[in-house]
Amino acid sequence: MSLLKLLRPGDVIRSVADITPEFLAARGLRGLLLDLDNTLVPYHSYDDFPRSARWVEEMTGSGIRLALLSNATVKRAEEWRGRLALEGVGMAGKPNPAAFRRAARALGLPPQQVGMVGDQLFTDVLGGNLAGLHTILVHPLIDNALPHTRIARMLERRVLARHGHAWGPEVWQPGGAEDGYGK
Ligand SMILES: [Mg+2]
């Protein structure tokens, strides 16, 4: 498979709030691996993020199997694992596909029934596609202005444009009135 194809998300959505049990059923998915930073909670933040906590509760209540798959430190991942009542690990080593396969196995599901949800093409989408998962790209919750992130974001936009997706803060910025950011 070409690199461009491996960088193509199965879905591009605004946030995890767009994922419902019906959305998953339509795609044959029974479980999700979840990136932490900028997907479930803003990058580096330890503030409560009730919207994601509620979403996790709703998914779990509907029988969807969830686990964190984060490159954050073990300490940070542990903290949020506890607060969001999720299984899973930090320091996952994304985009190494072995990490995705292992995590899917831990959910007790075959890869084709597992989705990877994240905000980065070069870790979440690339690794998820390499492991044979359905990949779902969300807009990052905050625009972290680190130089290396800015370059990655620019490349991501170019790749996504090739796949026909407009993406970035001018398309949809979390925090708008309709978004209920942080509520
Ligand atoms: Mg992330």
TrEMBL record:
GO terms for cellular component: cytoplasm. One of its GO terms (molecular function) is phosphatidylglycerophosphatase activity. InterPro entries: HAD-like_sf, HAD-SF_hydro_IIIA, HAD_sf, PGPP1/Gep4. Gene3D superfamilies: HAD superfamily/HAD-like. Pfam families: Hydrolase_like. PANTHER family: 4-NITROPHENYLPHOSPHATASE-RELATED, PHOSPHATIDYLGLYCEROPHOSPHATASE GEP4, MITOCHONDRIAL. This is HAD superfamily (Subfamily IIIA) phosphatase, TIGR01668. It comes from Deinococcus proteolyticus (strain ATCC 35074 / DSM 20540 / JCM 6276 / NBRC 101906 / NCIMB 13154 / VKM Ac-1939 / CCM 2703 / MRP). The lineage of its organism: Bacteria, Thermotogati, Deinococcota, Deinococci, Deinococcales.
